[in-house]
Design a protein that fits this description.
This protein is of the alpha/beta class. The chain folds into two domains: 167 residues, Aspartate Aminotransferase, domain 1, CATH 3.90.1150; 252 residues, Type I PLP-dependent aspartate aminotransferase-like (Major domain) (Aspartate Aminotransferase, domain 2, 3-Layer(aba) Sandwich). It has 16 helices and twelve strands. The protein starts with 25 loop residues before the first helix and ends in an 8-residue tail after the last strand. It binds pyridoxal-5'-phosphate (PLP).
């Protein structure tokens, strides 16, 4: 996409309500960051200027969605909003059965308990934090079967989310198909930089799995963004609508888990959707224990209504072109400045390559965590670490995982920030780039047991003594 041509991606909306932003001083930011243990997750959002921590639940809802909130049918059982959502999920995603959950991990929890037996292996196109944890808590071991290019921040492969079929076949040969309940396929792949999987690869994965009686589960959290990439990049798909590509994607899988807080333009919500009747009966029974009755799954009626409307807005071509166009505008500007980022640019975020940004830091000094802290100090912009801290420890050995990628994620909330904000972001990163050699790295001083990146605390390393 030629992002110079702004009309190609100019925001397809005008602004009806505004929320003031707060600009802070460098001194205030230093105090706030020390208080937060140099972990951007622990900052108060009031101390943040542009919040690019996540695209999860941070979306701006439309006037129609807000109007839908007033149509909440807050009945304990059988809410009208549930039935509207069920019909919309069937139409858009194509699965027969819907189980609403409070957010994506609620669906992951149900599905993992439903289909995993202790000792199983669950292959996937790279891990996602909550997905893998629920697989492990259900007794499985996650096995990464993504193509090698996904682990290379400089590879220009157009579908870095693809499954490596040889790796998947080798795993099935090694442990036997009976030990592989399903393959977990994410579209797009968050931890690889929002990289898409192609329909061709998903179809081949499906065929391999069918030969062995293995199910395919889609993490559909950003499957609509994935469909946009297929439309733009996969041969022969240019004339197909995003809506059609989405249905074709889902039709190659048996079930999906969904975090509606991403693609679906809401602040909370999720669901499990699947085709098999018996599994649906069980999931519907389990959701009552862990989330709420099967017609609300931990959500208010109004949340389900906003989600149903979001499904239509998210599939609109002009929405997705503007959403991904904004991300690519920032990425292209950073590349023009020579700043190392993951390429090709994904759908929801720009990933700074901290290993190349701060090559003087060893991985043990958490370069990505350090760079996220530095960007906050510079400008009050909040980003997130996706490197060694997020990767955590191997549960069997207790050793820290050492991922090949050491990234800082700048994640774009949908419909929230303007192009001028994007320009401020670009300028701020350039200023950190200019003084990158001053960054000394961090030591971890508190480590929680689960999903440590959320709550870990750090301290800056002292500057190295000048060489004699
Ligand atoms: C956010 C996310 C999840 C988990 O969803 P929550 O709504 O945060 O519980 C699962 N998979 C992917 C790819 C995600 O981005």
């Amino acid at each position: 996409m030629r992002t110079r041509e702004k009309r190609a991606w100019a925001e397809p909306f005008k602004i009806k309500m505004v929320e003031p932003l707060r600009v802070t001083t460098r001194e205030a930011r230093e105090a706030a960051l020390a208080e937060a243990g140099y972990n951007t997750f622990l900052l108060h959002s009031e101390d943040v200027y542009l919040d690019l921590l996540t695209d999860s639940g941070t979306n701006a809802m439309s006037d129609r969605q807000w109007a839908g909130m007033m149509l909440g049918d807050e009945a304990y059982a059988g809410s009208a909003n549930y039935y509207r959502l069920e019909a919309k999920v069937r139409e858009a995603y194509g699965y027969r059965h819907l189980v609403p959950t409070h957010q994506g991990r609620g669906a992951e929890h149900l599905l993992s308990r439903l289909w995993i037996r202790p000792g199983d292996r669950v292959p996937g196109n790279m891990y996602f934090t909550t997905t893998r944890l629920h697989q492990e808590l259900a007794g499985a071991t996650f096995v990464d079967v993504i193509i090698d290019e996904a682990h290379d921040a400089t590879s220009l492969h157009p579908f870095k989310g693809n499954v490596d079929l040889a790796k998947l076949e080798a795993l099935i040969a090694e442990v036997g198909a009976a030990r592989v309940p399903y393959v977990s396929v994410a579209a797009t792949v968050n931890m690889a930089g929002g990289q898409p999987i192609s329909l061709e690869n998903l179809r081949a994965t499906r065929e391999l799995c069918q030969r062995h009686g293995i199910k395919v589960v889609l993490d559909a959290t950003r499957a609509i963004e994935n469909a946009w990439f297929i439309q733009r990049r996969e041969p022969g798909r240019a004339g197909q609508s995003i809506a059609d590509i989405l249905r074709e994607t889902c039709a190659l899988t048996d079930a999906c888990t969904m975090s509606a807080k991403k693609d679906l333009l809401v602040n909370i919500g999720g669901f499990l959707a699947l085709n098999d009747d018996a599994s649906f009966e069980e999931a519907r029974n389990m959701v009552v224990v862990y989330e709420g009755l099967h017609t609300y799954g931990g959500l208010a009626g109004r949340d389900m209504e906003a989600m149903a409307i979001g499904i239509d807005e998210a599939r609109a071509e002009e929405h997705m072109t503007a959403r991904i166009g904004q991300v690519h505008y920032v990425a292209d500007a950073l590349l023009a400045e020579g700043i190392p980022i993951v390429q090709p640019t994904g759908g929801h975020a720009v990933f700074l390559d901290a290993a190349r940004f701060l090559p003087h830091l060893p991985q043990k000094a958490y370069p990505a965590q350090s760079l996220a802290a530095e960007l906050y100090l510079e400008s009050g912009i909040r980003a997130m670490e996706r490197g060694m801290v997020s990767a955590g420890r191997d549960p069997s050995t207790g050793h820290e995982h050492q991922p090949k990628l050491e990234l800082v994620r700048l994640t774009f909330p949908r419909r929230v920030y303007t192009q001028a904000h994007c320009d401020v972001l670009i300028e701020s990163i350039c200023r950190v780039w200019d003084r990158r050699e001053e960054v000394t790295g961090l030591d971890m001083v508190y480590e929680p047991r689960y999903l440590r990146f959320f709550q870990a605390r750090f301290q800056p390393r002292p500057p190295a003594a000048p060489a004699a």
